Amino acid sequence: MNRAIRLFSFIVISLFVSTAAMAADVATLQPQQWQTIQEHVIEGDIPELRGMPTQVELLMPASIPEEADETVLGYLGATDSIAFLVFASLFGVIALFIIFIMVNGISRLDNGFSGKMIKRWSGLSISVHWLGAIACILLMLTGLVLAGGRHYFEPSMNASSWTSLVGLSSSLHELMAFPFILGYILMILMWAPKQIPASYDLKWFAVLGGYLNTGKKHHPDAGFANAGEKLWFWVFALFGGLMVISGLTMMFPETFVVTKNTANLMLVMHIASTIIISAFSVVHIFMATVMSEGGMSNMTSGYCDENWAKQHHNLWFNELK
Fold first, then answer.
1. 3-class SS at 2?
2. 39: how many CB neighbours lie within 10 A of its CB?
3. What's the rounded Cα separation, in Å, for the pair 134 and 179?
4. Domain assignment present for 43
5. Which of 201, 267, 268 is nearest to 233 (CA)?
6. How far apart are the first and last CA of the chain?
7. Of 2, 131, 132, 265, which residue has the fewest beta carbons closer than 10 angstroms?
8. Among candidates 266, 192, 195, which has minimal Cα distance to 228?
């Protein structure tokens, strides 16, 4: 547990340090210097007195702002591609999973439900999970509007409705960032010790966890977390962390003293992390609610059926005996 906490702290501190290191000097104009003025009297209905410096000097910044990174601007300029990828990471993966379930079917319990329930998650773990999960879902939905709504929503909406939707999405997106960050930190600290990769995880991936309903049934070894859950956890830990760092940097640019290039880079990082997290989230939700018979009770009651534990997490079940 202490090793996991130290590792997580090192990653977070490194991300903050690297973000601050990217900040450049802010351009500051040199002080105005008073110069001798040559006066000219202009005759007319209303006499005027005009003047020009005898030696005009061009004021330059004490430090020259950095030039725009054309590569980063090129990525951000491809708004249609960004919108497509963001929407595909959610709706495209949903469509693929529906097709997979229609062809393959779900993973049912070989011996049905035993009726004997086993404690799997504490009340605190369930609360932390839903704190982060609800915030994450709202962030994804509002992110859809902000990243691709102009291409997919605005054409079919009137101006006032579109403006209201964008305003609501922007405010809710920023508001949900804070419960997401809290849930993210707590989940990483609380669950990391149970997500350490093991040698038998490779065998789990070799048979795709035994979820394929073709030929002989396979139920590979798995501890408290199977290999798929571990992969999701570490993907969430890495890219969720990048989302947090990039999001906070864009929300509080003055605090981090970022330049435009740094802000643009953070936006690219945020979008890329969003696409990856959204795709994995869809898989995670489908696996918990549809694909695995009896799996949903884990995060609603904190208990799982004994036969479910034997079939999907046999090594953990054996440790309980």
1. helix
2. 8
3. 9
4. no
5. 201
6. 23
7. 2
8. 195
Position 238 pLDDT exceeds 70: yes
Instruction: Name the packing angle between helices 260-286 and 227-251 (round to 10°).
Output: 150
Give the tens place of pLDDT for each residue, 246-290: 999 999 988 888 888 899 999 999 999 999 999 999 999 999 999
Do the domain assignments include residue 14? Answer: no
Q: Could you give the number of structural domains in the chain?
A: 1
- CA distances 128 to 121, 184, 218, Å, are 11, 9, 32
What's the distance, CA 100 to chain centroid?
Answer: 26
Tell me, yes or no, whether 250 lies in a domain: yes
Helices in 33-92 by DSSP H: which ranges? 70-77, 79-87
| CA separation for the pair 286, 283 (Å, rounded) | 5
**What is the CATH classification number for the domain harbouring 169?**
1.20.950.20
Confidence of residue 319 (pLDDT cuts 50, 70, 90): very high
Confidence of residue 68 (pLDDT cuts 50, 70, 90): confident
Alpha-carbon gap, residue 270 to 173, rounded angstroms: 13
Q: Please check whether residue 81 lies inside any domain of the structure.
A: yes
Give the three-state DSSP class for 121: coil
Q: How far is Cα 309 from Cα 111, in angstroms, rounded to an integer?
A: 12
Question: How many other C-beta atoms are found inside a 10 Å radius of the C-beta of residue 251?
Answer: 13
**Rounded distance, CA 8 to CA 171, Å?**
29
Residue 151, φ and ψ in degrees, nearest 5: -90, -35
Per-residue model confidence (pLDDT) at position 202: 96
Domain enclosing residue 148, as ranges: 69-320
Whether residue 241 contacts residue 192, with contact meaning beta carbons closer than 8 Å, is answered with no
- Provide the greatest CA pair distance for the chain: 105
Is 120 in contact with 303 (CB distance < 8 Å)?
Answer: yes
Structure tokens belonging to residue 48: 């005027």
Cα separation, 293 vs 297, whole angstroms: 10
pLDDT for the residue 228: 96
